[in-house]
Design goal:
Helix content is about 30%, strand content about 25%. The chain is of the alpha+beta class and about 475 residues long. The chain has two domains: about 1-230 and about 450-470, 4-Layer Sandwich (Glutamine Phosphoribosylpyrophosphate, subunit 1, domain 1), CATH 3.60.20; about 245-445, 3-Layer(aba) Sandwich (Rossmann fold). The chain has a seven-stranded antiparallel beta sheet with strand order 3-2-4-1-10-9-11. It has a six-stranded antiparallel beta sheet with strand order 5-6-7-8-12-13, covered by helices on one side. The chain is globular and about 70 Å long. It binds adenosine monophosphate (AMP). The site of adenosine monophosphate (AMP) has 17 residues, from helix 12.
Length: about 475
């Protein structure tokens, strides 16, 4: 979400470009000027969806944008965000990162009350609840408060109500959201790299349970909910976020490098080279090489013009995609004992292929080191993880995974080391995919109960504190 006195469509476009890694399925922008809400959205990458004409048509000094990575709702054009709602002269547009776990109950309830839904997404429910609440609430703040009480799951959301941008984050802060100052106003975005792209200044993260409001007069916020802990998504640090982002106070690159160092300590091995799986394994491999003294040498080259392999809809397509995406640097691998470093193993498809490729290139030994513990359970809170049966580590010992992948040895980072590398304690992280215990109640799953209170928050103007840089993390 951006408010910028010089117009928002181009800044939103650049910010979305910086966040392209968070979703490649579709992109969209909504802006508001005068009495008109403008929206342009379509399936495809940011560069495919927008051009200078479409951006010029998106008029106004306030707007929101989104790139989609589907978790709830299929890959069809009607599920492309932002979603617009029009009610009694108000125009509301909304975009959301995360995943609700009570979508079905909420949808049934609102359908019984006569609401009609046009999409199969959880985001439309958020918009519908807010639009419905605006009928009786005095303000958007009250409507969001009412909405947040009903939602269970993860949400980092932005909403555009006429020319005001709102941003709110679930009470456990599962998905990231941060605030920056730019030349003509303010920006809220999932990752700080979007602020960097606009040459802005990072101010702070949106607090879990907080609602931020930005308009032409500046920025203010209210705390809508408080919780006895946070549940930052551990997978953002492992894989999802860009390494140059600072999330909840921590530079992601540093976390990954520390994990690489700890991976060496956990399982030292005699080898000739440390080779990353590009790009996700690079920071980890840098840390491993640094700590072990074994040289960092690239044995794999990535074709930069391909998307992530998970985007392919079928297993067969995914397998073929890995081969096009990566090639070996044979001279760096032949007759070498290689420490191969990657961020995570999910289905095992990628690792198995890569190990085969490296062996075909003549490597003598391949010691696979993984920057996450075994992924044993699905994610219900915003990461597209397969079911337990497709997860290679679910119900299998490490030795069985090693044999299936064909590596000489395999070591995962222990959970305690990963948590220590992140630095905020396991009580403040969602480790659902690694432990099977989730911070919110999910049917049929274990929950590590969190207590959330909805407070009658007062409106505070944070602007002076921001100006003084007091809140900078
Ligand atoms: P695989 O083991 O074949 O399922 O692929 C795992 C690799 O895909 C990891 O090394 C990551 O780089 C990447 N990856 C992991 N989780 C995801 C995800 N949820 N969406 C897209 N890519 C992922």
């Amino acid at each position: 979400g951006i408010v910028d006195a010089g117009g928002v469509s181009f800044p939103l476009y650049y910010a979305l470009y910086a966040l392209q890694h968070r979703g490649q399925e579709s992109a969209g922008i909504s802006t508001f000027e005068g009495t008109t809400l403008y929206t342009h959205k379509a399936q495809g990458l940011v560069a495919e969806v927008f051009n200078s004409h479409t951006l010029q048509d998106l008029r106004g000094n306030a707007g929101i944008g989104h790139v989609r990575y589907p978790t709830t709702g299929s890959k069809v054009p009607e599920n492309v965000q932002p979603f617009n709602f029009r009610y009694q002269g108000l125009d509301l547009s909304i975009a959301h990162n995360g995943n609700l776990v009570n979508t079905i109950e909420l949808r049934e309830e609102y359908e019984r009350r006569g609401q009609i839904f046009c999409t199969t997404t959880d985001t439309e429910i958020i918009g519908s609840i807010i639009a419905d609440a605006l009928r009786t609430s005095k303000s958007m703040e009250d409507a969001v408060r009412l909405c947040m009480r009903r939602l269970r799951g993860s949400y980092a959301a932005v909403a555009l109500l006429n020319e005001t941008v709102y941003a709110f984050r679930d009470p456990l802060g599962i998905k990231p959201l941060c605030i920056g100052k730019i030349d003509g106003g303010y920006i809220v975005a999932s990752e700080s790299v979007a602020i960097d792209a606009l040459d802005g200044t990072f101010i702070r993260d949106v607090r879990p349970g907080e609602l931020v409001r930005i308009d032409e007069t500046g920025l203010s916020s209210i705390q809508i909910a408080t919780a006895n802990r946070t549940a930052y998504c551990i997978f953002e640090y492992i894989y999802f976020a860009r390494a140059d982002s600072v999330i909840d106070g921590t530079l992601v690159y540093d976390v990954r490098r520390r994990i690489g160092q700890k991976l060496h300590d956990a399982a030292p091995v005699e080898a000739d080279t440390v080779c990353p799986v590009p790009d996700s394994g690079i920071a980890y491999a840098a840390g491993y090489a640094e700590r072990s003294g074994i040289p960092f040498v690239e044995g794999l080259m990535k074709n930069r013009y391909m998307g992530r392999t998970f985007i392919m809809p079928t297993q067969q397509q995914r397998e073929r995609a890995v081969r096009i995406k990566l090639n070996t640097v044979r001279g760096n691998l032949k007759d070498k004992r290689v420490v191969l470093v990657d961020d995570s193993i999910v289905r095992g498809t990628t690792s198995r292929r890569i190990v085969n490729m490296i062996r075909d290139a003549g490597a003598e030994e391949i010691h696979l080191r993984v920057g996450s513990p075994p992924i044993i359970a699905p994610c219900y809170l915003g990461v597209d993880m397969p079911t337990r049966t497709e997860l290679i580590a679910s119900g299998r010992e490490v030795e069985a995974v090693r044999a299936s992948i064909g590596a000489t040895s395999l070591t995962y980072i222990p959970l305690e080391d990963l948590v220590e590398a992140i630095g905020c304690g396991d009580r403040n992280l969602c480790t659902g995919c690694l432990t099977g215990c989730y911070p919110v109640d999910i049917n049929g799953e274990k929950s590590c109960h969190c207590v959330v209170d909805y407070v009658a928050g007062t409106h505070q103007s944070d602007l002076s504190a921001f100006r003084a840089g007091k809140e900078r993390t």
